[in-house]
Write a structure and sequence with these properties.
Layout (H helix, E strand, L loop, with lengths): L1 E2 L1 H17 L5 H26 L4 E5 L3 E3 L4 E8 L6 E7 L12 E5 L5 E7 L5 E5 L2 E6 L5 E7 L3 E6 L2 H8 L23 E7 L11 H7 L3 E6 L5 E7 L7 E2 L2 E2 H18 L3 E7 L3 E5 L6 H11 L10 H11 L5 E5 L5 H17 L1 E7 L2 H7 L6 H26 L3 E5 L4 H14 L4
Helix pairs in contact: 1-2, 3-5, 5-6, 5-11, 7-8, 9-10
């Protein structure tokens, strides 16, 4: 039981009235009468809350698993069939990872009018999130006393790489709707090798695909139709070194890479390709062989869920040796890493060139958006000029790193962390459309 603000205001006024009665004696009986009335009201309020009020029922519901860096809806359902009108405050004990200690919802409870409280949370790390009890503080119309009702609704829920983001990009993998929300429609420069069927010619078909033998038999134009080559190996190579610990908007670069790997793997399965995953730093951590079976996406999800950043530098010589031994046949490789200096790049570039000769390698380089944002701010004093000059040098060095990688014929993606999934999916669709894999 808690005493409300209304109670303390009333008591404060009563104390002031008793104090005044020392100077004006006629106020003493009035103060005593008001004190007795206040005491009676408090006792009546306690009896109402603990005897006359029927306790509402309250339950919490949410998805079985939550998605990283996405808004996940949490639902709380309250049912009350008592006769008295109540006001209250709902306090949900949120997981400590959210660091939100002031969550409360004010509500009114009327007879046979169920309430639905919905709110969203955005997890910024993977792992187990523990929801605690639900606390409902109710007051009667008198509002002098507040009763807390505790509902034991503890539940553990796992936060996985973003399944919601994966679903968002799922439909965009198809050419007819690939122009939505920034997904580029790539003009096909030729066709891939897999023959699909012969169809009647319609305006807009490539006249170079006319099948003259079928045309002579049918007495009207017939064309060969081709489809994207299937069953190609698509590997996401995740650098777990310390350079991938850098945070942007609450997520590390590895978290962004993990979300994007899930998106690309799902799209690859929809296009009948075979996705796989490799994680490494100074040693090989995980190798999931490329496969196109239904269980592959679940395996990828479970593998990515457990990955964490390391404390050491990534060894690209180890990566080259491992790829040479474990991946047979030409594959499309997306390498998610973060080169912050030319020295770091020059140590890795000999091995990247060797990998690029055997596979189609795409190196993802992250733009430091915090430095870019700082360099664009207006200058206030001489110190700002020095700082922004250094920031501009960092930006120039990062772009020079990207250009140097391109000079060796290696495909690159230079992107902001929050746009990684979009840019990587664009590159995958582009490479498929141009038949480069």
């Amino acid at each position: 039981m808690f005493l409300t603000t209304r109670f303390f205001v009333s008591m404060g006024a009563l104390v002031a009235l008793f104090a005044l009665s020392f100077g004006w004696g006629f106020l003493m009986p009035i103060a005593q009468t008001i004190g007795l009335v206040l005491l009676a009201l408090v006792l009546s309020d306690v009896l109402i809350l603990y005897q006359a009020v029927k306790i509402p029922s309250c339950t919490r519901s949410h998805a079985k698993i939550l998605s990283l860096n996405c808004e996940n809806e949490i639902n709380i359902n309250i049912a009350y069939d008592g006769k008295l009108l109540l006001t209250g405050v709902l306090i949900d004990e949120l997981p400590y990872q959210l660091q939100k200690r002031d969550f409360k919802v004010h509500l009114k409870l009327a007879s046979n009018k169920p309430l639905h409280v919905n709110y969203n949370i955005t997890p910024k790390e993977r792992g187990i999130f523990n929801f605690g009890n639900i606390n409902l503080l109710i007051k009667s119309a008198l509002g002098l006393v507040e009763r807390r009702i505790k509902y034991h609704q503890q539940s553990d829920v796992a936060v996985y790489p973003s399944i919601l983001e994966m679903k968002q990009y799922e439909l965009m993998a198809f050419s007819k709707i690939s122009v939505l929300q920034g997904i580029k429609k790539i003009r096909r420069l030729g066709h891939s090798y897999e023959f699909e069927q012969i169809k009647e010619y319609v305006p807009g078909d490539d006249y170079r695909s006319i099948n003259w033998k079928a045309t002579s038999r049918q007495q009207h134009l017939m064309v060969n139709h081709y489809e994207d080559e299937r069953a190609q190996q698509i590997y996401c190579l995740l650098d777990k070194g310390r350079s991938m610990r850098m945070p942007f908007y609450g997520l590390s670069l590895l978290d962004y890479a993990i979300n994007t790997s899930l998106v690309i793997s799902n799209v690859a399965l929809l296009k009948s390709d075979r996705p796989g995953i490799v994680t490494f730093d100074h040693k090989l951590h995980q190798f999931l062989k490329a496969d196109s079976r239904r269980q592959q996406l679940h395996r990828i999800l479970e593998l990515l869920y457990k990955e964490q950043e390391g404390q050491t530098e990534a060894h690209f010589d180890l990566l080259y040796t491992m790829l040479q031994r474990m991946i047979k046949g030409r594959s499309l490789l997306f390498l998610f890493t973060n080169f912050e200096s030319n020295y770091h790049l020059r140590r890795a570039i000999p091995f990247l060139r060797k990998i690029g000769k055997q596979h189609l390698l795409v190196v993802v380089v992250f733009e430091n958006t915090e430095i870019s944002k700082y360099s664009a701010q207006p200058v206030q004093n001489l110190q700002d000029i020095y700082n922004q000059t250094i920031a501009s040098q960092f930006i120039f060095d990062k772009k020079a790193i990207v250009e140097e990688i391109k000079q060796y014929g290696i495909q690159t993606i230079y992107t902001k962390p929050e746009e990684l999934s979009l840019q990587t999916l664009n590159k995958y669709l582009e490479l498929k459309a141009r038949g480069l894999i």
